[in-house]
Amino acid sequence: MVLQSIVLACADSVFLSEMRSKIEKNFEAEIIELIDNKNRLWDYLKETKPSVLCISTDLLDSIGQVAQIRKLAKRSKIIIWGEDNIALSVDAMYLGADYYILQGGNITFFLEQLHKITGLRRKSHSVWASKLDGFLRGHFTNSSLKLSTLCDHFGISSSYATRLFREHIGMSFHKYLSFYRVEEAKRHLADTKDRVYEIADECGFTNSNHLIRVFFDFTNMSPEQYRQSLQEMDWLAYNLSGHSMQLGAPQHLMRPNPLQKKIFRYDNSYVTGFAAKDVFKCAK
């Protein structure tokens, strides 16, 4: 199996060493370089093309240098780790970044986002968590799905399954199940004109009231408010990027929305991801 090669670049050498330790302990990946110097970063990019390039904005003179990084690392997945500034993150992705993780969280938060972005394989000690995740991903639309269903399928105890969810996935079975259902509901809201009760049935909720309640817990808005926000976010993302566009301009005049790429944000006890068709809020 070919390991993903990762380069971490940040002025904080303590953060770099801790991140390297955690990645190598938990995932099947190769950290090929730690860079904490601006000049070294540019010299390195001229010679090496890693699978994943994660750079903190404290090593950039300006966000405009993201375009230079993209030119040097054409085939690398570029992740920018920067200040909590939505406009800045939009600019970074227009210039070539694939993802932007907003600063404010701790190393655990950063590690979880890196895992989501890169699809890093967890090491064998969490193989059961991966199996549970895979089963849940394939069956969450079943409204009668319970933790006991998974336990019976894999032949494990409910206490062991509960521990796997909390320690390796980061949330309880019920919270994780709701997360998948809300994400699916958001896709339906974005891509279809289905009514709320129809979406509830398609995504595994018992009824429309159940969907509305859980959806609000994750997003702080109703399904209809979310649907409306998609149009507003398309407009906002375009204007934050430095372009002018009158409200209500024809769809064919709009440039591709960079927020279709994910931006990860950490605030207080919540992890929030922003994207034109992918907005979620889940308790940590």
How does the SSE layout of this entry go?
Layout: E1 4-9, H1 13-26, E2 29-35, H2 38-47, E3 52-56, H3 65-72, E4 77-82, H4 86-94, E5 99-102, H5 107-118, H6 127-139, H7 147-154, H8 158-169, H9 173-191, H10 196-203, H11 208-219, H12 223-240, E6 263-267, E7 270-274, E8 280-283
Parallel strand pairs: 1-2, 1-3, 3-4, 4-5, 5-6
Antiparallel strand pairs: 6-7, 7-8
Number of domains: 2
* Mean pLDDT score: 77
Strand residues, percent:
5-15%
Write down the Rg: 20 Å
- The beta-strand count equals 8
Strand order of the largest sheet: 2-1-3-4-5-6-7-8
CATH class of the largest domain: Alpha Beta
**Total number of helical segments?**
12
SSE order, one letter for each helix or strand: EHEHEHEHEHHHHHHHHEEE
Secondary structure class reads alpha/beta
Low-confidence stretches: 240-260, 265-284
The CATH topology of the largest domain comes to: Rossmann fold
Shape: globular
Can you put this structure into words, describing what you see?
By secondary structure, the protein is of the alpha/beta class. It has two domains: 4-118, Rossmann fold (3-Layer(aba) Sandwich); 126-229, Homeodomain-like (Arc Repressor Mutant, subunit A, Orthogonal Bundle), CATH 1.10.10. Helices cover 50% and strands 15% of the residues. The chain has twelve helices and eight strands. It has an eight-stranded mixed sheet, with helices on both faces. A hairpin with a 2-residue loop joins strand 6 (263-267) and strand 7 (270-274). The model is unreliable at 240-260 and 265-284 (pLDDT under 50).
